[in-house]
Amino acid sequence: MRKLAALAMAALLYAPYTVAQQQPYSGMVDRPIKALSADDIANLRAGRGMGMALPAELNRYPGPMHVLENAGALALTSDQRDKVQGQFDSMRSEAVALGERIIVAEAALDALFRSGNADPASIDAATAEVATLVGRLRAVHLRAHLATKATLSNTQLATYQQLRGYDKPGVAPAHKH
């Protein structure tokens, strides 16, 4: 009897999990743009990086926002601060404009399917537009990291790595060629 009760309890506890696993998109049905969450849209509109520059950030190319956040610890000169702020402002301006275009392109792709008129050619065109815009957005963020690295000294770059937790203090970073 205890085994039966334990099995019944396990089934009750496991059932919601399996239903959620079988219907992972059910909560997305009412989104205005199915492929974008509210957070995605907010991030695109704010020009946030959303991890697009991780190849740079994690390979010793600091981002302008994080450099500005750590300006004191990095002992930025006023000239460096101005340059990095300009890099950030430029990146953000471009990113916001591209983010808006991505939202429009994703809405068009969504509308294509909602209309019932999707066909291979229209899908290819719509997805190519989204991919091009996302690629351009990613390049904007990556270029900002490139410019920011060029603005800092080697000592500041090493300090940044430590501040962000990428290098342990006292351990020489690996030299890459």
Short structural summary:
The chain is mostly helical and 177 residues long.
**Assembly state here?**
single chain
Percentage of residues in helical conformation: over 70%
Task: Compute the number of structural domains.
Answer: 1
Q: What structural class do you assign from the helix and strand content?
A: mainly alpha
- Strand-residue fraction? under 5%
Note the total helix count: 8
What is the succession of H and E elements? HHHHHHHH
Low-confidence stretches: 172-177
Write down the overall mean pLDDT. Answer: 89
Secondary structure: number of strands: 0
Shape: elongated
Q: Biggest β-sheet: count, sense, barrel?
A: none
Radius of gyration: 23 Å
Measured between the Cα atoms of the first and last residue, the distance is 68 Å
Describe, in plain words, how this protein is organized in 3D:
The longest helix has 38 residues, at 78-115. The chain has helices spanning 2-22, 38-46, 54-57, 64-69, 71-74, 78-115, 120-151, 154-163. By secondary structure, it is an all-alpha fold. The protein contains 8 helices and no strands. It starts with a helix and ends in a 14-residue tail after the last helix. The protein has one domain (30-163).
